[in-house]
Specification:
Strand order of the largest sheet: 1-2-3
Distance between the termini: 27 Å
CATH architecture of the largest domain: 3-Layer(aba) Sandwich
Number of helices: 13
Strand content: 5-15%
CATH class of the largest domain: Alpha Beta
Oligomer: single chain
Number of domains: 2
CATH superfamily of the largest domain: HUPs
């Protein structure tokens, strides 16, 4: 808790291009949380290097992601928006927490198994201890809540276990974080395979709408979206492609699924796809324009990076020093 507000932590990796699913499912909802919570939103670039990255590309993507946070409406005066790699406390606490995490716990992480299968030539220790760094990210800021998807829930449970284990030995050091259960963002599925989530790492370029796709690209991708041969527009599980297009339309237009089905009653799939494309273009155009404005103001983005990193370092160092004292590290001379 900072002041009267509970603390919320979240972050995104600086890899790949953010999709419409990332925006509608997470980023858009983050904006409304800053009134209720003290929010820390990290560009988690340290997590990104468990997979080999092109250095120049990683730097570019990290800056682009931080700029997108602001363009989406996150005020850097009200929210702490920063690069994980600029705050040394993350790495320092992660090492300490490694010593309070059991190999068996890390072996059970399904994401490690999945990523190991995808990157069999680079199964590194960072990939294995990734959840411990994630625990450090969260515990450093004494986060009360963490918005997580189902795929990250196992990591949050491990974070809670590590924090409770440490507290049992050394007293009340860490806040035990809870999963944030608030307004659920739209779950947007792949346009080419509606059985799986829209992903920034999908190899099929037509499967995902990226936030910086131009209007013509967005319309073309919507037109190519997988549907079915039933020829009727209903919101039901038996028609996953149509259901996904309706979800996208509703998330972009603010309408309910019932209203959308009524609107497209008697229409063909082509008309639905066209309407979805226009709705997406309408939502993303202001965001894209704001990104372009911010990219021109290099001095402003640089000042946000510097000031927010200093704030994150200050808040996180208080937790880190407390932990270091508890475990018996020698006290540092005052600066």
């Amino acid at each position: 808790m900072i002041g009267d507000k509970k603390v919320l932590f979240s972050g995104m990796q600086a890899t790949g291009n953010l999709t419409l699913g990332n925006y509608l499912g997470a980023l858009k909802n983050w904006v409304s949380l800053s009134d209720e919570y003290e929010c820390f939103y990290s560009v988690v670039d340290m997590h990104s290097i468990t997979v080999r990255q092109d250095p120049a590309e990683l730097r570019r993507r990290a800056r682009s992601l931080l700029t997108l946070y602001i363009a989406a409406g996150l005020d850097p005066e009200k929210n702490c928006i920063y690069y994980q790699s600029h705050v040394s406390s993350h790495a320092e606490l992660a090492w300490i927490l490694n010593c309070f995490t059991y190999m068996g716990e890390l072996n059970r992480m399904t994401q490690f198994k999945d990523k190991s299968a995808k990157h069999a030539d680079n199964i590194n220790a960072g990939l294995f201890t990734y959840p411990v760094l994630m625990a450090a990210d969260i515990l450093l800021y004494q986060a009360d809540v963490v918005p997580v998807g189902i795929d990250q829930m196992q990591h949050l449970e491990l974070t809670r276990d590590i924090a409770q284990r440490f507290n049992a030995i050394y007293g009340d050091v860490f806040t035990i974080p809870e999963a944030y259960i608030g307004k659920v963002g739209a779950k947007i599925m792949s346009l080419q395979d509606p059985s799986k989530k829209m992903s920034k790492s999908d190899e099929n370029p037509n499967a995902s709408i990226y936030l910086m796709d131009d209007a013509d690209t967005i319309r073309r991708k919507c037109k190519r979206a997988v549907t079915d041969s039933e020829g009727v527009i209903l919101y039901r599980e038996e028609q996953p492609g149509i259901r996904n297009l309706l979800d996208i339309y509703c998330a972009c237009s603010g309408k309910t699924s019932e209203e959308a089905v009524k609107e497209f009653d008697g229409c063909g799939y082509g008309q639905l796809k066209e309407a979805v494309g226009e709705a997406v273009v309408g939502v993303l155009a202001p965001l894209q324009n704001r990104v372009k404005e911010l990219e021109k103001d290099k001095a402003y983005i640089d000042s946000v990076i510097k000031n927010n990193a200093e704030k994150a370092q200050y808040v996180s160092t208080k937790t880190l020093r407390k932990v270091q004292k508890k475990i018996g590290f020698p006290e540092r001379p005052r600066q």
